[in-house]
Structures
1.
Amino acid sequence: MTWLDDIPLSFIVVGAILMALAPFHPEPHLVEKVRMLVEGNLVKPLDIFDLIMHSAPLVLLVLKLVRVSQQAKALQ
């Protein structure tokens, strides 16, 4: 996980926000794909790919925050 330490947190935050909200009109893909997943309509490969691509930066952000938290605890 040292590769994650090399990525600045601000870069991941900006990427996560942009990918979660893109496209801004009429509705963000992430919201649309999560709704489709909940309703059971997420069956097309392109829709699954969209969900993965738009949620990947959020997953990276969570991993980075967990990593930073673990490093802060180790320093105490």
2.
Amino acid sequence: MIEQVKLAYRFLLVMGLGALLLVMALFVPVLSSNADFSIYNTGWNGCSSLGRTVYGTGTFMPTIDVSGSTEEYVVHTSLPDIETKLEPLESALLFLGPDSPFSKEEGGFVHRFLIRGGLVLLADDFGSGSGLLSMLNTTTTISGQRMVSLAFEKSGDFSVASDMAVHPVTEGVSMVLLNHPSTIVPSPLARALVNSSHSSWLDIDADDRLDTDEPKGPFPLLTIEPYGRGELMVLSDPSIMINQMQGPMNGSILVRNIVAYLASGRKVLVMDETHRDLTNPVHVLNVYVNNISPWMKGVMIGGSVVLFVVMGSSLPARSKERMERLLKKLLGGETPRSLTVDEMFEDVRKRHPDWDRRTLARIRASIGE
């Protein structure tokens, strides 16, 4: 019965290993980056949560250039290259915390996209967003100055905004916790959807104090304006979209509302990843088992089956007996015999001559043979 149980355990072990190797083929590469605001960054400073939200709307459009990408470095299709793939009236673009500058060709693409009915959100504070705005037919710009406020949470850099205009983007939002925000200088056509408090100011000299020459709020933080047949939205605090900020106060509601507004009536929402810091590229992280070839998987399964058959036969027992005989020959023949009781006591007397011999004799007599 015990041998049958052992046999069953070995069988289950081999079957489990075989199933594991077959399931290995189901693993897929994982895109990863540690760049700020990247949708492939699952850390506190990434926007993977935002990426999942966009994906959930069914409008997410991958921009990976398969022909130019490798297993170590992912290349994204440039903005002008996707122009022919987009129908502006059915598409939206999201630029989140861009690091690298925009080219004139890219600025021309965004301009044509908006004129023809596209919807664009630029979320930036101290990056290259103002460079893109300067190439568009608008006077809206991002100040690039650090805003602090007496209405804050923990510190002035984490100020609170509660001045909301009535709009689908601000529906259900009563307050937003900001994270090192800048401000917007809006064009005459722009409408402010979120404003900072009256106790805010631009801390130009970074001393956390309001000086007489520093501009005082309130300041626009989120604006929207018509642009041809389309709309241009500008947000001066992209950090409200990072993973760490999802949840505090009503910031996550505002982010979901923004995504819903961008995706409403649109088939495609493109999240730009081409203007990231090139020192933090997007990599493809393959699960290790994906590197095991089908041939090697077959060898591993076959070897496991052979091992199972061998262990279930009498071969291991016969091999053990032969090994014991070989060891006896190598170690000098017969195994030493056990000592008799008299020999044991004689050995004790030799080792401990100071022990009382009469006491030892009584102990020996009580034991007998």
